[in-house]
Amino acid sequence: MDAIAIFHQDFPTLVVAIAICTAGLALFAFSLLGRRISNIDLSLAGAFAMTYGFRLIMRTQAIALLAGNPAWLPYLNSAMQYVVPVPAAVLFERFFGERLRWLNRIAAVAFIAVALIAIPTEIVRREPFAFSAIEDVIVTCSMILYFANIILFAPGDSKDRRILRAGTAVFGVYVLNEHFRFTHLPFGVSSEAFGFLIFIGTVVATLVRHAIRTQVRVAEVDGELAAARQIQMSILPKTPPKIRGLDLSAVYAPASEVAGDFYDFLPLGEDGVGILIADVSGHGVPAALVASMLKAALASHVELANEPARLLHGLNRFFCGKLERQFITASYLSIDAATGALKIASAGHPPPVIVRADRSIEELTADGVLLGRFAGARYCQSSALLRAGDAVVLYTDGVTEALNAKGEMWGEARFHESLAAGASVQQVLGALNSWSRTLQDDVTLVVAKCVQS
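Request: output the structure for the sequence above.
Response:
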């Protein structure tokens, strides 16, 4: 057969193979468009299509003729026979539900094992296609398993199911025709390669539909989280109240879109203020919902704003029975700037500290258990005295437990050193960001500094 006849005979196969490779490249490109979701399924489908198309190209007589019928070509075609099913098997194992997951996984492992063993063994023994019989058995079993997945457990909506079934049925007819030669149509229309092109088209359509639905869901969740963050920020004080004799400042840095930290101020006339800081266990929306409940709970106990122990007792009664696995740690203190009197109560929260004018540090401890877990809990109250230049600092454990790249905590010692050096809330946050590039927990810091004699 002359060269022109060979190329004429292989032309339909080459066209189909190039189309399949193009579909694979398109899948890879589409996988790069996703945001915040894993697109490995699209990449696997792309790898499957591209390796299948490449194998079709390399098996044509035209390529062998162009390459000069090299001795390595049979080994390459043999290797491609073992490689092509690997991304397909891994894709199907990931794509289908849990019901046949282990059987699908076994098939994927079998294809990988054959490829790893057969390719180097055939090269060493100089026997290309020596493992073809084993590969054929695994392919047959895998096709049966694939049909079972499609018929019984195809994922997605009914349209996905219909698309996959139609593509599988068409490909099955082409495979049967390849073996039994029921018909032979011109231009390669009846070849298995053309059937695979139709089949991979249905897989692409299903994966793209699935990816688009996932992207839409991610966009919806993003919108909901943005709305939740806006609502949460609205319940926090926009600016601290103006209290004579006190300089109030606060910083709030959530580790995620929404957080479980909360703080608020309760003005006590012109010269006094109550400050609550709290940390809800967990992260994300559940913690944020409980934090928003704190706003309402605190508002219903304003009459106790100058009695920290009684206020925490009231908050505990409010939350008992309303939380499932969550709990709240909190500290509340009241300050009379005119006299410097400070009263503090705590519910399992890191103790506030006083930074004296001489830069010494004192911890304000008060006994008390978590909020929302024990209905009969009692809370103790401690007192202290603030003088001009002194500051009291409330914080959540995200400050001291921030981790650096080595897994080391920032710790109380570094925190106290930062405060003793006169760091403001923004400077403390800057030091934290330098220590830990990514905050693992929410960070809240509130400072009340006495500025009058």
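The beta strands are 246-253, 261-267, 272-280, 328-336, 341-347, 353-355, 361-363, 382-385, 391-395, 443-450.
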